[in-house]
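This protein record is not my work; I was only asked to verify it. Where you disagree with what is written, explain briefly why. This is what I was given:
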Amino acid sequence: MARSFLWLVVVSSVARASPPPIAPEELRHVVFDRVVIADAKADWGTGPITVEHGPCEHDVRLVMSRELDPKHVPAALRAWNGRKIAVGADRCAAAITSVHLLAVTETEHESGFWDRARDPLPARGEVLSTWNASNVWLVGEFVGCGGRPWIRAAELKPLAMAAPTLIADKLRDDALVEFHALPAYRSVQAHFHGSGEWEAADSGAYPVLRFDLPGRTLLSHAADIRQHGLTEHLLAIWELKDGKELVLRHVATTSALPRRPFGLRLAIDLRDDGRVLFLYNTDESRGAFYEVDDTLVDVAPLRLGTP
């Protein structure tokens, strides 16, 4: 199993405050071809624990599953069983066939209680302690539509979305000039003791991404540094006006961004109201930034640590 894993501008950072709630049926991640409905609580599981995948040389993750205790799981979440869903950008049609708990963790060694564990194991001792130390989610099973990263309830309207494209023309150069003029950039530069531009890799500057949503185009550029005792991250998002003018929408700095380098993977007008949701990935997690007023909010229900 392989690893998967803005008009008149006010400059702002990503906020940790809660945006208007994003309901599970509006958008949820898929992991191991299951929809992650919600983070699970400690008392939601019952009965034995099944090892679905044990660590090996090429994949150190331990994947386990367990049945739900209906007395403790909210009825609204259990009601996902049988729900019709649209999977991915192509709205592949499927239905939830069952709901249960899924736990994923990384282990320090390849051998353990999971070796040759073909039958469910009693939930006690090392098995239970490992389960309790894992990322545990309430997930929904569905048949077909594999390999797609997110789902949405089938009855909801299709999303307006845009995957990023790389730009390598004058517009890219203009975006980098704007980026280098940001006070946040100059602050990092003042603490950088190396040579050259701090955000440039061996192959050059990190890419400028373009998102062509219906009726507007957004550009983004993110950079990071982890050297010379300096750890900084910086994200800027602009709107492109009249095909040439860059209007700054958002700036986000280190304290408000994921600790690891990240990439924006998709821009979505989630509710057809002009506010954009940006899905992002790091090498160990997924998440989303949502536009709320003049701020980008890190959306807690869409943060998914996937070791």
Remarks:
- The longest strand covers residues 92-106.
- Confidence is low (pLDDT under 50) at residues 1-13.
- Residues 170-181 form the longest helix (12 residues).
- Helices lie at 75-78, 125-132, 170-181, 183-191.
